[in-house]
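User: Run a structure prediction on this.
Assistant: Running it now.
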Amino acid sequence: MTDVAPLTGPGRRPAGPRRGPARKATRVVLVAGLTLALAAGIGYAAELGPFDPGPAKPDAEATRQARAFLADWEAGRMSRAAALTLRPEQAERVLNSFTAGLDISEPDLTPGAAKTGEDGTVTVSFTAKMPVTGLGTWTYASALPLRKQDDGAWKVEWALSLVHPKLSGTEKFRLEREDTAGPGITDRDGNALSSRKHPSLGPLLPQIAGGGGSGPRGAVRLVDRATGKVKGTEASFGKKSGRPADRPVATTLDATWQSAAEKALAAEADGKDAALVALRIDDGEILAVANSPSSGFNRAVSGTYAPGSTWKIVTTSALLLKDAVAPDDVVDCPKYLTVGKRFQNVETSEHRGATFRKDFTTSCNTAFISLRDKVGDQELGDVAGKYFGVGQKWGVGIPSYDGSVPTPRDQTEKAASMIGQGRVQANPLIMASVTATAVSGTFHQPSLTGDSEDTTTTSPLPREVVTQLRELMRTTVTDGTASVLADLPGDVGAKTGTAEVSDDVPNNGWFVAYRGNVAVACVVEKGVTGGASAGPVVRSLLDAVPDDPS
């Protein structure tokens, strides 16, 4: 039986569903379907497919594993790095031989972008910065392939090419060093110098051979594993010096003095950072340059230190040049003197009613500071430059720091400058030269190669000033703070120095001396006092080499 709708009125159709809304809904569905179809068509036109999400995002665990591998390799944990690969034994062997064979220390491995391949392999790029000891840094790019294992773990898919893209079963790398510091470098008597016999010369000899700073040279070569034939150069270090390879480079150094200087530092510097320079007084030729430790920074020639009371040689010269004081004048030496800040003597010593001679030989800070008004604000720097060459450009033969004596900014800084503190800067090379100039009267630019260009301009010290300086330094040995040299034979003079560094760091110890035709300067960092720390080093040197070089 079929239900029939009742009539609603004469001549009317039976009642039924309302058609207006139904037709509207139908139109919406049709439009939506058409939109999806059009979108799908556009997708297919772009060859993406209607539901393609784009490139797969690399698995986070794969990226983490790659970073762990690079971190272990970078830290030298080769066995741990190798364990993250599919071939751990081969990986460990190659990683060890690569870094050791190419003399690489402390590599820097920086991970980059990661991407997923069609086969599911994740590749993580990285940049390698490989410091080749003594030469420079070799930088290149490579990548790590990683594959997911059946147990869900990610492993580095080991291949020689991940270490370097050109490393393979047929090609490897070889480090070649150019020996610039062997028998091609000689001392003043033609004796061969080497870093093996004289460790302190290790950083200097390549500079000398390169004409002043070219540095060591070498290269990383790509070679055939079977024949050893060079197929390419991956990295080059240093530059050619321009000197014929078969022409020895002569220096002013003396092998005997150099050996004695290094032994003196090793025996007497108590393991502290220290440096020493010995040079000829009559011509400035450098006989020995020694540093402790022997490798690394050349403190002796390039260091920047407050010279402390050894600088009183220059201060005394400035005072004597203008007759501002005489050795027998009374210049009181109190424990303390305040000039903006409180200055004191070492161990707060005092010598009431002392002569200037006593002030010099006992290294009295307060007495020297009390004379600050006797010299102009710029006068100390002017004397240092005009008579001692300090602050002028020196052509030593290797890079050097040549000193600085700025004009004091206030009276406190001027007081400090009088005793080699404040902004006064020097090093053992400078102070050995200052000593040589003081006792000879004439500045000679220090030289390590004998053919260095001298562009300095100086004036000689008056003879009476030189005589007084020599007498004051001699008395410092016989009756003052440099008594550590008192029993050495001959005319030996010296000056001690103690230089403040900061409130929480021990003072640096300084000692300068002359004997015959040789001037010596030594600094011992954190040595506390010059007489107790640097003095024994200088004594050891002079005692070991009793004769001056010809």
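Confidence is low (pLDDT under 50) at residues 1-54.
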